[in-house]
Amino acid sequence: MSRSYPLASPAVRGLVAAFALVSGFALAPAAAAPGSATQEVRGILARADLERSYADLVEKLLPAVVNVQVERTERAPGIPAPFLDPDLRRFFERFFGMPMPAPERQPRFRARGEGSGFFIDGRGHIVTNAHVVSGADKVSVTLQDGTRLQARIVGIDERTDLAVLKVDPKGPVTWVEFGDSAKVRVGDKVIAVGNPFGLGGTVTAGIVSSTGREIGAGPYDDFIQIDAPINRGNSGGPTFNLDGEVVGVNSMIFSPTGGNIGIGFAISSNTAKQVVAQLIEKGAVERGWLGVSIQPIDEDLAKSLGLPDTKGALVARVEPGSPAEKAGIEPGWVIREFNGVPIDRLRTLTRAVAAAAPGSKATVVVFAEGRERRLTVEVGRMPGAEQVARAEPAEPAKGQPRLGLSLAQLTPALREQYGIDPSVQGVLVRDVDPDGPAAEKGVQEGDVIVAVAGKPVRSPREVAEAVRKAHAEGRKTVLVQLWREGEPRFVAIPIAVS
Q1: Which residues are catalytically annotated?
Q2: Is the pTM of this model over 0.70?
Q3: Each residue of 226-235: pLDDT tens digit?
Q4: 152, containing H or E segment
C-alpha cells in the first residue's frame, strides 16, 4: 500500500519509497528586477495569455527561488542499540570487564544534502522545510545568478516541517508573497518549482487535487494536494497560483515507486504564514495548550451521550494542573466549539487551540450532562515546543566570540537519541569543532549545557547571549556547567574571537 513520507532522503519500505524533494534553485531565462515578484506578476496577468504559456509568469518568479545546501555530522552505522543507553553500557562494562563502545566514540562522517527555498522579503529571509536543515552544522544558499551566501537558521518548527533561514544579500533580491490558501479551490491551476532528481531548475504545472488533507504527518496537518509533478529535489520549494502567490510549500509525495505519480503535498500557505511570522519574530513557535486527550465521536457514542450528531471532540483525559482542569472541563465532556470555531473533527480543535496565544482567554462550548454550556479558559503554553536551532555561518562576523560548538534545542527525539533523562534541562551539543576551544576542554557531542556563567540556559540563543555578555565584560573564559551520562560537571572554556 502506498504511503506519504517527508521528502528528505531516499528510503525504501518494501515497495514504498520515500524521497527527499531536495536541491535546486530554478534558473530564470532573464534577470528580474529586485522586489516583490508577486506584485510584478499581478501586473502581467492583464496582458499574459496563461492558457498559451506560463513563461511571463515564470520569468518573474524564479529569481526568488534558491538552492539550499547543508552539511551535518552523522554517525557511522555499527554501534548496537543497547550501547546507546549509558546505563546499559555501564552494565555491560561491569559484566564483561572491558570498555564498551560509546556514542561519542562512534565514527562520524560529514554528510551533505540539498533542498529548495524562497525569499519572502527583501531582508534576506528564506522559507524552506525543517527536514532540509534540521541538525545542520552549516547552511548556505545559491541564488539564481550563481551567488553563494552563508546562511543561519533563524528557527525551525518540526511539527509543521517549516524553517526560516537568513542571509545577508549583497544587493537587492527578488521575493514572493504568500497567498490565502483558504481561497484555493480544487481544480485551480498551480506551478511548482524544484530540482527533481538533480536535473537542474525545473518548473512543473498542474492543478489542485484536494485541500485540507490530513496524512498523518503531524498534529497540524493542512496540506494542499497537487498533481504538478514534484520529485526528489523539491523539498522547501514553492507552489504558486497564477497570481504569483505562494499557496503551498512542497514537502511530501505519495508514491509506491519513489517517483512522481501525480500525488504531491504542499504545506498550506496559511499554516506557513503563521509559523514563519513567529520564527522570524521569536525564533520559535509558541502554541496554545488546553491539556486534554481527545477522541472522535461515532454514531454509537453520539447516541449514548445524547448528541444530535457526531461533531465535536470527546475528552478522554484531562491533564492535572492543565488549563482545562482549571476551567472545570471533565472526561466524558464533548468540546463542540473553541473560540468561535465549530469543532467538526479532532484536527480542527488541535489547530484552533495551537493558534490561540498563550495567556489569552478563550471561550469553550462543551456538551455535558445533556446540555451545552460555555466556559472560559486561560490558554496555556504548550510544553516542549520546539525552539531555535541555529547554525553559525561558516564565516562568522569578525570580532564575534565563539566556543566552537553547534547547538540544538532539546526535543523528545533528541533526548531518545542521546539517552538524556527528561528531568535534564538545557541545550544539546550537536557537534564540536575539533580545532575550537570547547574541544580542547573535552566538551563532546551529546553533552547538555545546563548553565553558562551561573545562569540556566534553555536555548542556543541563550548560550550565545551569555557568551557574548562574558566577552563584553572582558572575560577570557566562561564557566559552563555540563550534564554527561547522569553526572554534572563544570568546565571553563576559553572564549575565542572570530
Answers
A1: 131, 161, 235
A2: no
A3: 987 776 667 8
A4: strand 148-157
